[in-house]
Design a protein that fits this description.
The complex is a heterodimer of chains A (817) and B (439). Chain A is α/β, with parallel strands linked by helices. Chain A is built from 31 helices and 20 strands. In chain A, the strands form four sheets. In chain A, strands 4, 5, 6, 7, 8, 9, 10, 11 and 12 form a nine-stranded mixed sheet that branches. The radius of gyration of chain B is 30 Å and the shape is flat. The chains are: A alpha/beta (817), B alpha/beta (439). Chain A: It is found in: Nucleus.
Chain lengths: 817, 439
């Protein structure tokens, strides 16, 4: 937008904006707008001083920041206690943030007025006047002193110097076009529409502000209409090219022209209601008051109508107007360059086209107009389902609605029968339960609820050291405003994710009480993504709420982390199950570890995976190198730690005998050290205890016997029981398998060989020998339980058989019979 | 009331038979659940308690039901669900999702099915149109888990996930679905109960370690060690008519006939044989179904002979039956292969070898058989291959000529001999050739 920064001196700065005749002078104590993330709401600041850096080439400015309403977190906005004014800003007194900006990022001066906290906001729509009432230090709002705010000298007329990429040139051409015919003027418009560079469109799309495009276009139209209308209405005696042009058409095609003239009327009326100073200024956002939206709307329609005339004249084809109008709307929405070539979507619009036609023929009847409006809305919504990424976001859809909505006179007409409710507004969800949950009734139930893995413990015992390490690592990065990576490994159930979450909770708390700067916390999980590249999408969505394709998201994130931006918060990113983000080129991992190394990224990446040597095993050198050597490994819990964990969870609920707890923790520690397992066993033990309290001698506590039973249930393999419970022939078959293995000296035999042994055993046991089919069925059943490992059954008698249990187990199980 | 009963007693026999068949068929085809799952009381209680806690207290749980095929896993689950849903509190809360590993072969299909069954379609419907399918996944998971009330397990309705053929889900890529389901069940989100049904005893070894850690390790094993007397009792109850049968007289007659049937020595023997072969109730139902289908108006009860016939039908060898339909030439080729197998100890053979063996037989002792042309023999050989009585050795490519392609015999000697005994009008010299030790 800013083309160049010209001459500089210590006391003032001259910037020139493309398309504007005069350069703007920036001096200290003046309020300025600074380019930010959101093009619609640039940052506001006051220049304190201007200076050049050491080399003398780079000009910088020291500024005092102001915060817009949209920059204050929604949760904090409640502290305000009233509705914020859209033009309200707050004097920023929070934590020190980068107050040096490059002068390239200065957009233009702006007017800032201080108001007493009691005075109401002036009722003005001026977009270039900001109001300061309060200061904001990221915790609370305070009344601000007017001396801090008011600048020494206000710029003469900041509003006249609005830089506007799209309209800058056009406004000029419009001004110079006064002598041209209206049709020529319109064709200029049309050319502008058609030749708008895709670059501009892209830029606008990127920021999901497509409605701005529409509103800008509408405003351009409005501008032309201003002239047109003035000529048509205010100076009737003067013979005008438009009327001349209109007359012959009037003769030839009567109806289109009547449409045109009728449509022109409302815009004139609407225009008269507006203060003249605003006529030339483009609208910046969709936040208009009602007059404005009426204006926009009527002008939109007028635009359609005038185009209709234009086209009729140009092509003299009676059916064209509708097509053209439809194309035009689509063009506005689609930013497509070619007006007539996209016929394939035509049928989609046929019904609404009719409505549109009806709308253009009706007069100022309110109800019918609404029907027409709805049809337009429908088109917008329909387009919204189209292919362009921007239209998809629900936010822009909503804005579309607000753009086209008129204040309605009778609210009972609100829902028109013809408009189907768009499904995107109804968010289906799992219904809430109709009956409340029952509260735990006795001590065992309460213990069980406390022991569930999901119940969040008050503290995390036994991970103090790890907690401290991670905490200090992240804290130092946040305070320094730098970035870094950390790799955390450990077997499942050792509290890796829980510890990181606990750290984040504490840091968040610290940030709330203002000990450390605020930060963003984002969490992604490799297991919860279908594709590693979805990581970008999720990160972007968590950061900004935007939705994008993976490639686009990667580009946006890259831009965000690689470029300096004032007042950037530190982002803490937790990547769980890192190994699943592995791709062949490892570009996802590379990016994740590369961003923290960028100077301006302020990104802290914590990664979690199970294996300790993951970086060495699966990462290529340049990825492993960027991950760095900040490693931490979580050891499996020892039995004492497990015991402590259970005790702290139970929190003085006396449900377990001491010995029982020790048994569980020793057993689990010996096997895996998985805290989840430990909790699950305890939970199961409470159940067993609950069901076995029929005998009154029991203490009601979970004792050794219950725990033993639970341990047996969970750890003993069912193979031996399964063999004991198998049918006679199945047991015989297993014996035959072992006999055949012994004969062969191998651990593998074909079914045919085993079957011979089986027949012999049958005779030995005095049973009738079974047929081959039956034998195969027996074999398959054993294979389905995985007592045997089999080849695919299509091999029939030739399939090879192996035991999945040890021979000793089989013999033990069969002997015990 | 009593009047009607008197009238009902004398129903025409045909009507009674139709009713009997209907009642018993429903039992055998698993359309009707038994009142109580017999022999599975402990497991029934465990599962019912578990699901009741999920439904009423909003506790998340995961459990596996493991047992051999036909042991009554699904029956148990259905019984539990039936009884659970009779409680009003549970009925109002519980949402159910049933998945089957054989149908939902990958996670995407499974998610679609979950969405459909939870009636979350329209978000996803919108989603599917506009965006790539990958987003879809998170969409549902978000919907499913972090609903409007994230972290509040007391307000959202519990969801029961039944995963039939659970082991097949473990073969999905990364086990993403299982990870997410178990993760939800271990976190304070929407309460879920995950019930896996499988027949594999080693199912836990299939799970990846992080998935395994999130599973609660509850397993309900359906391994019942009942004896033959219980089996016989089951047969009796399965065949008996209920007390509320319309024609009381007929029901009494029928039940007493079943009683005598079960006491018959030969019947007991046949059932013992079945019991020895498998304790699977499905195969028993198959046997009883065959008996039932022989009941007609002219023969209004099951006779021991019917059961023996049915038993024979169930136990007969499939391959031997197939041999009965072969031509003499094909049978001779099979015999030649058998001799080759004996001579070369199971090494594979080709058509040429088999033909030579056959020609040797013809030269030596055949007086009823003639030599056939090579193409005719080839045709017969190919027919055998199509019937899968022989199959080519793995790895032998199609490059080799068909005459020399190596083959293996898929039959056991006993099957061949059995088939020869029953083969209609088998020439004696062929029989002798088959029985002789040497070719």
């Amino acid at each position: 937008m800013i083309d160049s920064v010209c001459s500089l001196c210590v006391s003032s700065l001259v910037i020139s904006v493309e398309g504007l005749p005069r350069p703007t002078i920036i001096i200290p104590e003046q309020h300025i707008l600074i380019e930010g993330d959101d093009e619609d709401n640039p940052y506001v600041a006051k220049v304190i001083r201007l200076f050049g850096d050491e080399s003398g080439e780079q000009m910088k400015a020291v500024v005092q920041w102001f915060v817009r309403v949209s920059e204050v977190p929604l949760s904090k906005l409640k502290l305000l206690g009233r509705e914020p004014h859209p033009q309200e800003i707050f004097h920023y007194q929070g934590r020190i943030c980068d107050d040096e900006v490059n002068v390239e990022s200065i957009l233009r001066p702006v007017q800032v007025k201080h108001l007493d906290s009691a005075t109401p906001f002036p009722n003005s729509d001026d977009k270039d006047t900001m109001y300061v009432k309060l200061s904001w230090d990221s915790k609370a709002f305070r009344v601000v002193d007017s001396a801090l705010v008011e600048s020494a000298c206000e710029p003469a007329s900041p509003s006249s110097q609005l830089p506007h990429a799209v309209s800058g040139v056009e406004t000029e051409s419009l001004h110079s076009a006064t002598k041209l015919s209206a049709s020529k003027c319109l064709s200029t418009k049309r050319r502008n529409l058609a030749t708008r560079t895709p670059g501009v469109c892209k830029k606008l799309e990127l920021h999901s502000k497509w409605e701005d495009v529409v509103s800008q276009l509408l405003d351009k139209e409005l501008d032309s209409k201003v002239m047109l209308a003035h000529r048509l209405s205010s100076s009737p005696p003067q013979p005008h090219p438009v009327t001349h042009r209109l007359t012959p058409i009037n003769k030839a095609h009567r109806s289109p022209v009547t449409q045109g003239t009728i449509r022109l009327k409302p815009s004139t009326i609407a225009l008269n209601r507006l203060p003249p100073s605003k006529m030339n200024r483009p609208l910046l956002s969709a936040r208009e008051n009602s007059t404005r939206s009426v204006l926009t709307l009527t002008s939109f329609k007028t635009l359609v109508a005038v185009y209709t005339i234009h086209l009729t004249k140009a092509q003299s084809h009676p059916t064209c107007p509708h097509n053209f109008a439809v194309c035009l709307i689509r063009n506005l929405l689609d930013n497509q360059q070619d007006l007539n070539s996209d016929g394939e979507d035509e049928d989609e619009f046929v019904p609404s086209q009719k409505e549109l036609n009806g709308c253009s023929e009706e007069d100022e009847d309110d109800g019918e107009e609404e029907a027409g409006l709805d049809s337009e809305e429908e088109i917008l919504v329909k387009k919204g389902r189209g292919t362009t990424a921007v239209f998809r976001t629900p936010r822009s859809k909503q804005k579309t609605h607000s753009l086209t909505r008129t204040p309605r006179k009778n609210p009972n007409k609100k829902i028109m029968p013809g408009t189907p409710r768009t499904p995107h507004q109804a968010t289906p969800s799992i219904p809430c339960r109709s009956l409340p949950t029952r509260q735990p009734a006795n001590i065992l139930e309460e213990a069980r609820a406390r022991l569930h893995v999901s119940s969040v413990p008050e503290s995390l015992p036994c991970r103090e050291q790890e907690f401290q390490d991670i905490y200090s690592f992240v804290e130092s990065k946040i305070i320094d405003g730098t970035g870094g990576c950390m790799y955390i490994s450990g077997v499942p159930g050792t509290g890796k994710t829980a510890t990181v979450h606990e750290v984040m909770r504490c840091l968040q708390h610290a940030a709330d009480v203002d000990e450390i700067p605020t930060f963003h916390f984002i969490e992604i999980n490799g297991m919860k993504m279908t594709d590693p590249h979805q990581a970008y999408v999720q990160i972007l969505q968590n950061l900004t709420g935007q939705k994008a394709t993976p490639d686009h998201a990667a580009a946006l994130l890259d831009k965000r982390f690689n470029n300096p931006a004032p007042r950037k918060q530190t982002t803490v990113l937790l990547v769980d199950e890192l190994d699943l983000l592995w791709t062949r080129k490892q570009n996802v991992m590379y990016n994740l570890f590369d961003w923290p190394t960028q100077r301006h990224a302020r990104l802290v990446v914590l990664t979690i995976a199970n294996t300790m040597d993951l970086p060495e095993r699966i990462m290529i050198n340049r990825v492993a190198s960027r991950l760095g050597l900040t490693r931490m490994s979580f050891q499996p819990y020892s039995f004492k730690q497990l015991q402590q964990i259970i005790m702290s969870r139970l929190n003085k609920v006396k449900a377990f005998e001491e010995d029982a707890l020790q048994l569980v923790s020793r057993k689990v520690a010996a096997l895996s050290g998985d805290a989840r397992r430990c909790l699950d066993i305890c939970r199961r033990a409470t159940e067993i205890c609950e069901h076995s309290t029929t005998n009154p001698s029991a203490t009601g506590l979970v004792g050794m016997s219950h725990v033993m039973e639970a341990l047996n249930e969970m750890f003993s393999s069912a193979y031996i029981t399964a063999i004991k419970c198998a049918s006679m022939q199945e047991q015989l078959f297993l014996r035959a398998v072992i006999a055949e293995f012994r004969r062969l000296g191998l651990e593998e035999a074909t079914f045919q060989q085993v079957f011979v042994q089986h027949q012999a055993l049958c005779r030995l046991e005095g049973l009738q020998p079974i047929s081959v089919s039956e034998g195969l069925a027996v074999c398959q059943r054993l294979g389905a339980c995985r007592l045997l490992l089999l080849e695919p059954s299509r091999l029939g008698v030739l399939q090879r058989v192996r035991l999945n249990v040890s021979q000793d187990d089989v013999l033990y199980a069969l002997k015990a019979d | 009331m009593s009047k009607r009963k008197v009238k009902d007693v004398h129903r025409p026999i045909g009507e009674c038979i139709t009713q009997v068949q209907q009642i018993l068929r429903e039992r055998f085809c698993h359309q009707q659940l038994p009142d109580r799952p017999e022999g599975l009381e402990a497991q029934y209680k465990h599962l019912l308690e578990l699901l009741r806690r999920s439904a009423i207290q909003g506790e998340s749980n995961s459990v596996l039901i493991v047992g051999p095929r036909g042991a009554g896993k699904t029956m148990l689950l259905q019984c539990v669900l039936r009884d659970l849903l009779q409680e009003k509190e549970a009925q109002k809360n519980l949402l159910q999702v049933h998945l089957n590993g054989l149908l939902q072969t990958d996670d995407r299909i499974a998610l679609k099915e979950i969405t459909r069954q939870l009636n979350l379609e329209n978000v996803v419907g919108d989603k599917v149109f506009v965006s790539v399918q990958t987003e879809y996944y998170e969409q549902i998971l978000e919907n499913k888990t972090a609903e409007k009330s994230p972290g509040d397990r007391s307000s959202s309705r519990p969801v029961l996930f039944v995963l039939d053929e659970f082991d097949l889900f473990a073969h999905h890529k990364n086990q993403t679905l299982l990870y997410n389901l178990f993760d939800v069940s271990q976190s304070a989100q929407t309460p879920v109960a995950v019930v896996g049904v499988t027949c594999r005893l080693d199912v836990l070894e299939l799970l990846e370690k992080r998935v395994k850690s999130r599973f609660s390790h509850r397993q309900i094993h359906l391994l019942s060690s009942f004896g033959f007397s219980e089996y016989l009792q089951t047969v009796r109850t399965q065949l008996s008519l209920p007390d509320d049968f319309t024609d009381r007289g007929f029901a009494q007659d029928w039940n007493s006939s079943i009683q005598t049937l079960c006491e018959d020595k030969s019947v007991e023997e046949a059932l013992q044989r079945h019991f020895n072969s498998s304790k699977d109730f499905r195969s028993l139902h198959m046997l009883l179904m065959l008996c039932l289908s022989r009941v007609s108006v002219s023969k209004p009860s099951i006779k021991p002979a019917d059961l023996l016939d049915a038993s024979r039908l169930c136990l007969c060898d499939a391959k031997a039956n197939m041999l009965h339909g072969l031509s003499i030439l094909e049978l001779c080729l099979i015999i030649a292969m058998k001799h080759l197998n004996d001579v070369y100890e199971g090494e594979p053979f080709n058509l040429q070898m088999v033909h030579n063996e056959f020609k040797k037989f013809l030269q030596r002792k055949s007086n009823s058989m003639y030599n056939f042309e090579q193409p005719v023999v080839m045709k017969a050989f190919e027919h055998l291959q199509q019937l899968e009585l022989i199959r080519p050795v793995d790895g032998s490519s199609a490059k080799t000529q068909r005459e020399f392609q190596l083959m293996r015999l898929m039959l056991d000697h006993s099957q061949i001999m059995e088939a020869l005994q029953k083969y209609p009008q088998c020439p004696t010299d062929v029989k002798q050739w088959a029985m002789s030790a040497f070719g």
